[in-house]
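Human:
If only I could read backbone structure tokens as easily as an amino acid sequence. I am handing you a single protein, as its sequence and its fold in token form. I hope you can help me see how the letters and the tokens relate. Thank you; the sequence and its tokens follow:
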Amino acid sequence: MSQAVSLNELWESTPPSEQIFQPDQLVGYPDTVQRYLNHAIAPGTPLASAVRLRMHGEIKLRGWLPFTAEQVISWRRGFIWRAAVRMNGLPIWGSDRLVDGVGGMRWKLFGLFPVMTDSGADMTRSAVGRMLAELIWLPSVLCQQDISWTAPDTVHAHGNLTQFGERCNLILTVDHQGGLESVNLRRWGNPEGGEFHYENFGGVVEAEGTFGGYTIPTRLLGGWHFGSERFESEGAFFRVTIDQAIYR
């Protein structure tokens, strides 16, 4: 059923926000979390529950391939990432998605001939992990009271949260001005192609920008085996630049 929901429908199903961000609502949060959220969200900004992104970059499928994409992330319903990838000069169009607790992917050569399709419980579980990592593009969600934050030191913040039944410890690395340096978590997946298991997954922030009161990462290198030597040598598979972000 999730395949029937379009990116536009997911976006339009999100009601506009009625709450605004004020720094005093962060009283009681660890200092590291306050520093990050005060940097990421300007006072008076509506606390969005969805973001619509336009992006471009490279994705590693044997080799690095260029892509352009549009994505909607809706905290209540999930996400759809719709992209066009060029392989050997040929266009492959498709999407990765998690809508209403159901994950899947569908990719077609020329938009006609299936080249990759997957779904099921493991795919859904992995998609939830991806969505939680990508909340760095929707930091308003990280202000919610049902997220439990701890800060073991002045540069790391750990957020415990649950979405679609998947529990997560989201780890943010924050500089002394509040800028985000990295994000990581334990995500369900099979990066080696074998059995699914929890593996370190995350991204390194290389640049940031501001859209509609939100300061978010605009250039990022992401992938599996985050925090180890394997990340750069084999785990990283996603280089992305955010061109536009719209919030509601």
Helices lie at 7-12, 31-40, 121-133, 230-235. The longest strand covers residues 197-211.
